[in-house]
Amino acid sequence: MIVAISISPSASDPEAGVADKVAEAVQVIRDSGLPNETNAMFTNIEGEWDEVMAVVKAAVFKVAESSPRVGLVLKADIRKGFETGQLAAKVERVEAALGN
């Protein structure tokens, strides 16, 4: 499965910047060893259900250590027979359809 998550802590500075808190969550995800990628809006994580959800929980709880409120947006792609290698493969299929 692939999940796309966005963790939104309450504002941590007067300009409403949250980069430091988001970085803490991303570090938990990277340290998990699961395939992942981060873009401007989400972090994608690939793996089996239980291991992915454990990482999501750990990332949220890490941010909750220093933020009184944490929001989580999660989108999942669960496709039998396509459990691994899909972070790159999905993009490759789109690029191929575009003729790239």
UniProtKB/TrEMBL annotation:
It comes from the Bacteria. Gene3D superfamilies: 3.30.70.930. Residues 3-95 form the Thiamine-binding protein domain. GO terms for cellular component: cytosol. Belongs to the UPF0045 family. This is Thiamine-binding protein. It comes from Nocardioides marmorisolisilvae.
